[in-house]
UniProtKB/TrEMBL annotation:
GO terms for molecular function: heme binding; iron ion binding; monooxygenase activity; oxidoreductase activity, acting on paired donors, with incorporation or reduction of molecular oxygen. Keywords: Heme, Iron, Membrane, Metal-binding, Monooxygenase, Oxidoreductase, Transmembrane, Transmembrane helix. The keyword Repeat does not apply. It comes from Armillaria ostoyae. This is Cytochrome P450. The chain crosses the membrane at residues 12-29. PROSITE patterns: CYTOCHROME_P450. Belongs to the cytochrome P450 family.
Length: 467
């Protein structure tokens, strides 16, 4: 009978039947025989990455919000992805166990220290980081050894001594921002979201590259490069699922990309500026020493060993500018909003600043500001509520199995915990949605801060600019 049925099928029906059987076999394996079969989660998430695609792309990055619902339903560990074996880029067409992506997300804050710990050998999951098309940058580089070398070269740029040495660069831009805000028309509201991002972008450009876009001079702070950086962030989601689009967008014909994606024009302007700057530095390294202060290019081109490629320098430049301007701008925006909305906090902060800064005609030093306890508390609370990078930063467990928050996790599993599950956890921070700077003045806050204040992540891939 079965043979008769097969004989009656057309080629098309054969294909449909075979596909159905393959999908069924994959489903049964994922549910019944997979190493992560004991971890709860939506069955469809264990079968296909398109479950996450729906929320990330079609719901505008809504998977983080959906994760909260999944943890309410399934508990502190949720399986959110299937087993996907990728090819190791370093060894063409060679399968590597450490790139088998079985995905778990944790909600217990204790898991953070088990995933992003000092000395961790967990690697970054290329599925997310390849979407940035910046594989040699300190942020997106997946290889731990290469990342360590790059971070060691860049370390001096973000050291405390360097910050103190050229804080006048920062002060210059802050003064310019204050001047623009204070001289504006009271009848015309100012978009502080753009104003603070313009300031941070100009500061980072001057600090890291000794150049500036003069974003603070743009009408309504709407500098095209700034707008491009902001508008390009949502593009990460589709590029994550269609990585072959990334080089097409980044390196395709500009006339075509500008027509299809007008917001990318500012990105290309940024690319051209950095490209010209790097060409000058490579052609005439001595010119770097004519700058007012050392730049990122000093560190990267003066290191021992082979000099980085132009592409590598471009990727690092764009990474530093994009990451720094967006996160710092978000923190300042959140902080100002909460201080202006909270009379008690505003009055206490103003009193502390007036005592430490009696004359506004004089600039106050960073060394003096960092000693002010309530100002420091306001900054930390602003950082906590703005979170930083809210997207869970995936790590691949390895080289061996691991124990995360008491759970055995096989090598090759991609694990993560979103920062909101730490900073907004009521067991760690009471009334987590409220702006309460006083929490950072409590006697027992140091231990909590060391474990659970993680806006810059932790471990060997911690944010370079955390100081």
């Amino acid at each position: 009978m079965f043979k008769a049925i097969l004989n009656s099928l057309s080629v098309a029906n054969y294909a449909i039947l075979a596909s159905t059987l393959l999908i069924l076999a994959r489903y049964l394996y994922q549910c019944l025989n997979h190493p992560l079969r004991h971890y709860p989660g939506p069955r469809i998430a264990a079968l296909s990455k398109w479950y996450k695609f729906y929320f990330d792309v079609l719901q505008d990055g809504g998977f983080l919000e959906h994760l909260e619902k999944l943890h309410v339903q399934y508990g502190p560990v949720v399986r959110v992805g299937p087993n996907e074996v990728r090819y190791n880029k370093l060894v063409p067409r060679t399968r590597a166990k450490t790139t088998a992506h079985w995905k778990l997300h944790f909600s217990d804050p204790r898991a953070y220290g088990d995933i992003y710990f000092v000395g961790s050998k967990f690697t970054k999951d290329p599925e997310l980081y390849d979407a940035f098309d910046q594989s040699s940058s300190s942020f997106a580089c997946v290889d731990p050894h290469s990342a360590k070398i790059r971070r060691e070269l860049l370390g001096p740029v973000f050291s405390r001594s360097r910050i103190l040495k050229i804080q006048s660069v920062i002060q210059e831009k802050v003064d310019h921002l204050i001047h623009r805000l204070s001289s504006g028309d009271p009848e015309n509201p100012v978009n502080l979201f753009l104003a603070f991002r313009a300031a941070t972008m100009d500061i980072i450009m001057l600090y890291c590259f000794a150049e500036s876009f003069e974003s603070l001079d743009a009408d309504k702070f709407e500098h095209p490069i700034l707008l491009s950086v902001i508008s390009s962030v949502p593009m990460i989601w589709p590029l994550k699922y269609f990585p072959w689009l990334t080089p097409m967008v980044a390196h395709g014909p500009r006339w075509l990309i500008n027509r299809l994606l007008p917001a990318m024009k500012g990105y290309f302007d940024l690319f051209a500026l950095f490209s010209n700057r790097i060409d000058r530095a490579i052609a005439n390294p001595e010119s770097l020493y004519l700058e007012d202060h050392e730049t990122v290019f000093h560190c990267l081109l003066s290191g021992k060993g082979d000099a980085p490629s132009k592409r590598s320098l471009l990727e690092e430049s764009i990474t530093l500018l994009g990451a720094g301007s967006e996160t710092v701008g978000a923190v300042v925006t959140a902080g100002v909003y909460h201080v202006l909305s909270n009379l008690r906090s505003r009055e206490r902060l103003m009193q502390e600043l007036n005592n430490a800064w009696p004359s506004l005609d004089m600039s106050v030093k960073y060394q003096d500001l960092e000693k002010l306890p309530y100002l420091t508390a306001v900054i930390k609370e602003s950082i906590r509520l703005s979170h930083g990078v809210v997207t869970p930063l995936p790590r691949v467990v390895g080289p061996g199995d691991s124990i995360i928050c008491g759970h055995h996790v096989p090598a090759g599993t991609t694990v993560s915990i979103g920062i909101t599950f730490v900073h907004a956890n009521p067991d760690i921070f009471h009334d987590p949605d409220q702006f309460i700077p006083e929490r950072w003045l409590a006697d027992d806050i140091k231990e909590v801060e060391a474990k659970y204040f993680v806006p810059f992540s932790k471990g060997p891939r911690m944010c370079l600019g955390h100081k």
